[in-house]
Write a structure and sequence with these properties.
single chain, alpha/beta, four-stranded parallel beta sheet, 44% helix
């Protein structure tokens, strides 16, 4: 049985969140509470009402560039929210906690990134807030025996994905004939991890959490942004109009995961290649274009 907790805030278009939620609430064994994890009193009521034995924290303010504008919102959600969840775990005897973290912590490192790389010099308030959450998890694992697995997600994409992520933007912009904004020359690359693969890795982590571990979840592939654009062009059947802007100092030039630890400890490896994953995203967009075309992606 799963209890979903979400504030359904407007950090990005709520229609995407409600589309996902409608599909979850139709499933047996799922219930939903509209609660902000930053509200400790309301969160405590959720834990008192449900005898949970595991907690997965997927709640966060995400995205590098927006964290430059409103870092306070990121620290409230990512740090205070995580602290509240950990405290509820401690108070209710819950010994398994999984935290969704980010590859954005690997600032200034050569790819591929492995979990032993230093992550003490984040380039954005977003990355810094996730580092703070990771450190809190270590403290609670050490002090209170809350076994925590920190999963550093690489660029997660797929149907109904976040609209500030490049895959959603590319599909929308190219489909609608809008200019495609690129920060830099487009040769920057990302490790794109398909949502189904990341979900499977997360479930595997829930099953084996013990002590304190940090594990990467990525595709182990490095795809230049221009290559991703060309794939979407082929899938959509339309050529992109590129607009280049200066690169952002908060962005990493390249990401690629080392997933040897995930393979060894979780028995996990990604199954979906970038072409297949983007095809799923394009198909979803076509099916939902009547409203997805109006999602804010600027």
């Amino acid at each position: 049985e799963i209890v979903g907790v979400d504030s359904l805030d407007d950090a990005y278009d709520v229609r995407l969140k409600r589309w996902r939620l409608a599909r979850l609430t139709a499933l047996a064994g799922f219930s939903f509470q509209q609660v902000d994890i930053c509200n400790r009193t309301e969160l405590e009521e959720v834990f008192r009402a449900h005898a949970c034995d595991r907690v997965v924290n997927l709640a966060a303010r995400a995205g590098v560039r927006r964290s430059l504008v409103d870092p306070w919102a990121y620290y409230q959600s990512n740090v205070i929210g995580t602290l509240n969840l950990l405290t509820c775990c401690r108070d209710h005897g819950i010994k398994t906690f999984v935290l969704a973290s980010t590859s954005s912590l690997y600032a200034g490192s050569a790819v591929p990134f492995d979990e032993q790389r230093p992550t003490d010099r984040p380039l954005s308030p977003y990355a810094a807030s996730k580092k703070a959450a990771e450190v809190l998890c270590h403290s609670y694992a050490h002090l209170y025996g809350v076994s925590t697995t920190v999963l550093r997600y690489f660029t997660v994409y797929g149907p109904a994905g976040r609209p500030d992520m490049s895959p959603f933007r590319l599909v929308q912009w190219i489909s609608e004939g809008r200019p495609v904004t690129i920060y830099g020359d487009g040769r920057q690359s990302r490790d794109f991890a398909y949502v189904d693969d990341v979900a499977a890795g997360t479930l595997a982590a829930v099953a084996v959490a013990d002590g304190y571990e940090i594990i990467n979840l990525g595709s182990e592939q490095q795809v230049p942004l221009l290559e991703a654009i060309h794939i979407v062009e082929r899938l959509v059947g339309r050529e992109a109009t590129l607009v280049h802007l200066p690169p952002s100092p908060a962005d990493l030039p390249a990401t690629r995961a080392s997933i040897a630890k995930a393979k060894a400890q979780l028995g996990w490896s990604p199954q979906v290649k970038i072409e297949q994953g983007l095809a799923h995203l394009v198909g979803w967009y076509r099916d939902n274009r009547s409203w997805a075309k109006d999602i804010e992606t600027a």
